[in-house]
Amino acid sequence: ILTILHGVYSDHQDDWEQYTQDQHDLLHWSGQLFQSVAPSPSQQQMASVRNDIRNKLGEEKPELGPTGTQGIDLYELSRNILCASQDVLEVKTMCPRCGHVASTESNTDVVWTLTSKHWTNHPKKLGLRGNRPISDWLQAAASQKSNRVCTECDQTLHLEKCYTTAPSFIAAITHEVNVHITSTLSPPGLLEQYRLCGIVYYHNFHFVCRIITKSGEIYYHDGQSLGTQVKFIGNMLTVNDKTLLKAGKFKCRLLIYTRL
User: Fold this and answer.
1) What is the pLDDT of residue 77?
2) 132: β partners
3) CA–CA separation, 87 vs 237, rounded Å?
4) Going by DSSP bridges, is the β-strand pair 132-133/179-180 parallel, antiparallel, or unpaired?
5) Could you give the CA distance from residue 227 to residue 218 in angstroms, rounded to a whole number?
6) How far apart are CA 260 and CA 254, in angstroms?
7) 258 SS3 class
8) pLDDT digits (tens, 9 = 90+) for 136-154
9) Which of 37, 63, 156, 211 is the most exposed place for a label (fewest CB within 10 A)?
10) φ and ψ of 124, to 5 deg
11) CA dihedral in degrees (39, 15, 164, 6; nearest 10)?
12) 199 neighbors 184 (Cβ within 8 angstroms)
């Protein structure tokens, strides 16, 4: 995740502070760390940046990043680093028949954990779910049948999610579903299009990633074998999307999109 964020920072050094001022302090603060090691950080410098961010996260939430542990859950790490500093996602429990709103709440979450249940629990029949675009999966997850009924008409209530403010990043945990990885994403409730900026892969207790630049160039990074170097893979205009689902034995776990 840190390597992907550094890639986004490299594309947006001049406006990073502006676009991350409404994000979590860790994301905003990481720009200062990236600036201190720019433009081509050594492996030791990137390790120092990673440790600084992890220690700061550990201070805020010791249960996530305590010093001396081997790692942090991918979902928890991405959710806490990428989340907004203010509420951006509105969640309504409402009746599709009479329009009664049973409850409304908001949160700062920008990370979606996608499962096959999201497809089958959607109020409408969506057809086959194999290889559907990531936007379709988010739209499915954003509208779900609840286990509650309307107090006005006894209709099953729906859980409807949409963004009221555009965060800098949107991410999706995808290892449980077969998605079609697209270069752009339209989040629920927003007109803005987000571009794919990174993919995290996992295999045998090890993570690697691919970084996608603003111009669509794809680079592969494995800290164990490449250090801080990256390997050019191709361009989003020409690469087969199925190629993006795997990196050798490594399988896609996390997609990160940005409006930067």
Assistant:
1) 83
2) 179
3) 35
4) parallel
5) 17
6) 18
7) strand
8) 999 999 999 999 999 999 9
9) 63
10) -110, 155
11) 0
12) no
